[in-house]
Amino acid sequence: MDASPLLKVAGLVAGYQDQKIIDGISFSVPNSCFLGIIGPNGSGKTTLFRVITGFLKPWEGEVLYQGNNTSRITAADIAKEIAVMPQGMESTFSFSVEELVAMGRFPHLGRLQKLGKRDRDVIRQVLELTDTEDFKDKKLFELSGGERQRVFLAQSLAQEPKLLLLDEPTAHLDIGHQIRILDVIKRLNRTEGMTVIVVLHDLNLASLYCDRLILLKDGFIFEEGSPSEVMTYETIEAVYETVVLVNKNPVTKRPHVLLVSKEQQ
Question: Rounded to whole angstroms, how far apart are CA atoms 236 and 178?
């Protein structure tokens, strides 16, 4: 059995203009892992995500996918294996939901090649999986925020990725939509072995869905491990500089963070 990591991040240093944001970050992601990247605002989560996805070039270090430096892999080849869902995706074109989802099949098509039966089967499956089939003929601007998020997730899943990268996929969504989206991703992680790296702001969602967590502070990895190892009250208080209680979720037995206001201390 191949024990080599699917993705390896080695000595990443990156930032914008002359401002360094992340400094010397290294970690590995094994196949079928559900990895969450957490940390306070300004800790470097989005910058790290942009480097991993290739949207930002690192000053130092490298990102390896299956042992190959991603900077030396063509965009077309990467798109066949890796799907990216950035934060706040929008479309200014009047495409229908089904047309947008179908774009996820483009990496698997040759030049001027039309969608085949297998492509249409995949599109139908991901529409059903993400509960977007009922409005597949609607335009994106006709949908709610939660519906649009599910459409872009469906588009990413239509690529049939081995690795799915998501930046705050539950941002601005109500708790019902948050659970629906993460349930879909977790199901594919478990049943299909899809590896997931997700940036999350909500600590309790990260604890609930992720196998492993990377906690960032000031551009460094402050702690890495399972939710139980990372989400102790001492660690959360040190990184977020606020008083919290960390109990076990009575259903999942995973850590659950409770906030304590200054008035209640």
Answer: 22
The model's pLDDT over 100-127, given as tens digits with 9 standing for 90+, comes to 999 999 998 877 788 889 999 999 999 9
Which 8-state DSSP code applies to residue 82?
Answer: E
DSSP state of 168: S
Where are the chain's structural domains? 1-76+161-176+188-231, 82-160
Q: What is the pTM of this model?
A: 0.92
Distance of alpha carbon 165 from the chain centroid: 4
Domain 1-76+161-176+188-231 has CATH 3.40.50.300: yes
Q: Beta strands of the chain (E only): which ranges?
A: 7-16, 19-29, 34-38, 60-65, 68-69, 82-85, 163-167, 195-199, 212-217, 220-225, 244-248, 255-259
CA distances from 205 to 91, 95, 169, 173 (A): 27, 32, 11, 13
